[in-house]
Structures are given as C-alpha cells and as structure tokens.
Specification:
Blueprint: H1 22-26, H2 30-33, E1 39-45, E2 48-53, H3 55-67, H4 79-92, E3 97-100, E4 111-115, E5 121-128, E6 135-136, H5 138-150, E7 156-161, E8 164-165, H6 169-172, E9 181-184, H7 186-194
Parallel strand pairs: 5-7, 6-8, 7-9
Antiparallel strand pairs: 1-2, 2-3, 3-4, 4-5
Protein name: Restriction endonuclease
GO molecular function, one term: DNA binding
Keywords: Endonuclease, Hydrolase, Nuclease
C-alpha cells in the first residue's frame, strides 16, 4: 500500500517527525497526505500550542489545492487537519507567532496569529471545514465577531472555510469587511495563499 513506512498519523507531534521529501509526497494522493503531520510544536501558551509548519507536506497540499480547488472539501473529513493547514499558512505568510488552540474549549478561535513590529497584529481565525454545499451561517460569523470583541488585543477576525458563506453575510458585515473582519471562502483562501507561496 502506498504510504506504508511514512509514519502516517493524526495529531501534532512534539518530537521531530521523520524527514519526508517533496518527491515522496508528490507520489501520494491527497487523501494520504492529509493524515500526515503538518506542524511541529515549538512551545505551549495558555491559549494552546505554538506551532511551525512542516514545509514539504504543507506546500504539497497547497500545490494540489491550487491545481484542483475542489480538494478543499477533503478537509471536511478531518476538521483538525484544516485548522493545522491554516495555522501553517499563517506561518508561511510571515507571522512571528502562530498558536493552534485546543480541539475543544478554543473559546471561538482555532488559530491565533501574531506579527510583531511597531504595532502588533493579532489575528483570530475560526476555521470551518465544510463539505460542498454546506455554507457558513450568519450566526457563525456573528459568533466570531463576538469572540473578536471580547479580546481587546485582537486586530482582526477571520473566518476561513473550505466552502462559502450564506447569502446576506457579505451585506450584513460590509462595514467591517476589509477592516476588522475578513471572510475567506475556498476561492479567497487559495488566492490568499498564492501571495506567499514563494515564502515556503
């Protein structure tokens, strides 16, 4: 069977995972890549684990998504992997500190990403790994904004989904989108990642 001996497994590893080459990953199907480790844990904080992306698995999945965006729906089978993939995206985008919150008790945010400079940017991301046809509801976005307003240090709220948003959401939040709220559907998510692909 393809993938045997590659130490496929679920969850984050606190130890160094075995080196996996880009060539090996390219020979695997998308379904087999998803269970592989995408992140390494570099520290613990009250909100969760500070993580770094493992470049080869992350980049290979992104390249597959770029060629076939419908593969995003594969994450609906493993919501935690979608959260890990998004966490890896923030690190590749140049954020200095990326925290993956616990699978339960995340207080309404799955990923917290910080970029430090003259002003610290702190992004809260709620990840929705939905199957095709299932839309993020207005209540999901309202809940995310409630989380955002409860955290005084937060700069921006993001809802990332493999799918799309229910009708009316863009209009409801038009005064916030582009300022303190970003809605990333499947198409926007891939376009966002294309901007920093070369950083990987």
């Amino acid at each position: 069977m393809v993938g045997m001996g590659l130490n496929l497994g679920l969850g984050l590893s606190n130890s160094n995972p075995p080196a996996v080459t880009k060539e090996t990953l390219e020979s695997l199907s998308h379904e087999l890549i998803l269970p592989m480790e995408l992140l390494s844990v570099v520290g613990e904080v009250d909100d969760g684990r500070i993580v770094n992306a493992l470049i080869n698995p992350w980049q290979t999945i992104f390249e597959q998504l770029e060629q076939n965006p419908n593969l995003l729906y594969e994450f609906s089978k493993n919501h935690r992997k979608f959260e890990e993939f998004i966490a890896g995206a923030y690190e590749n985008a140049g954020f200095d500190k990326v925290v993956l919150t616990p699978a339960s008790g995340d207080l309404g945010r799955d990923v917290i990403a910080e970029k430090h400079g003259l002003v610290t940017i702190r992004v809260l991301d709620q990840c929705k790994a939905f199957s095709k046809g299932r839309l993020v509801s207005a209540n999901d976005v309202r809940a995310m904004m409630g989380t955002f307003y409860r955290e005084p240090r937060a700069s921006r709220a993001v809802v990332s989904t493999t799918s799309d948003f229910a009708p009316g959401i863009w209009q409801e939040w038009k005064d916030h989108i582009g300022n303190d709220l970003e809605l990333r559907n499947g198409t926007n998510l891939i376009e966002w990642m294309k901007q920093f692909k070369l950083n990987s």
